[in-house]
Amino acid sequence: MPAITVDDVLVLPRLPEHDPATEVRPVRRLTTAPKGFEGEGFPVRRAFAGVPLTELDPFIHLDQMGEVDYAPGEPKGTPWHPHRGFETVTYMIDGIMDHQDSLGSGGSIANSDTQWMTAGSGILHIETPPEHLVMSGGLFHGLQLWVNLPRASKMIDPKYQDIRGSKAALLTTPDGGALIRVIAGEVAGHSGPGSTFTPINLAHVTMQPGSRLDLPWQPDYNALVYALSGEGWVGADLRPFHLGQLATHGPGDTIRVEAKTELDLFIMGGKPIREPIAHYGPFVMNTQAELKQAFEDFQKGRLGVIPAGRVPHTD
């Protein structure tokens, strides 16, 4: 089940023609994600490894989960675990992932669906492949992004958004060479369905070989481009760029990418929060004292209780 697509991109709304008077953002840093394992042992690429938090703000962490083709019995997930002080955004490209949390929320995501969990003051959750996928095996590929919450929102009540892939805003480039899926925020006047506390944009873009993307971007947002697959060039100076690499950008009005092969991108940006960060394990707070309190609250059961039974899946 690949990410949401259309038969003819030429019927979609198009980005405006690039204005030469606007400033194309330069690449500040280009890094390659190391490989690792998460949860019960599923493979990930740590997309933000080695990048200073000041260049990621308001984002904290990004894992590319897979792409892996599991044999029967191999699919894995995570055990129950806590979060406080930020939001987790899980975006599924191929395969299926189930979510369950201590609020009683739950469901399945596939085919460009997104589970957006605002941990706020604290929540417990688990992410697992459904039993039928464990039995059959199959392709698994997705992303999990952590979005920081500002100090004023860190202890808000937790909430959960189940965002269907069909709700994403779809648009293309002037020549129809790319499909742009807007998950959250606003790109060239087109808004995604995700509701955010921190002003951010999230988009999944598929580019055809030889195509060019000049994506208008808010000048007061940072800009991060991660390659999910393929090869191309990125930034004002068109630096070579391939699968597993992250490009952080300097100031400007436009993100530029050119595709050598078919190129899949996850493009992120937001208004920096510019507050102190105390981050350890599943908690993202402002001070060490708040981190200590989060661990104490978790140990004393104040972040929620594991439900007795499974939550029914969302269709």
From TrEMBL:
Its cofactor is Fe cation. Residues 203-303 form the Pirin C-terminal domain. GO terms for molecular function: metal ion binding. Fe cation binds at H81, H83, H125, E127. Residues 43-147 form the Pirin N-terminal domain. SUPFAM superfamilies: RmlC-like cupins. Binds 1 Fe cation per subunit. Coiled coil: none annotated. CDD domains: cupin_pirin_C (cd02247), cupin_pirin_N (cd02909). InterPro entries: Pirin, Pirin_C_dom, Pirin_N_dom, RmlC-like_jellyroll, RmlC_Cupin_sf. Keywords: Iron, Metal-binding. It holds the Pfam family Pirin. Belongs to the pirin family. PANTHER family: PIRIN, PIRIN-RELATED. This is Pirin. It comes from Actinoplanes derwentensis.
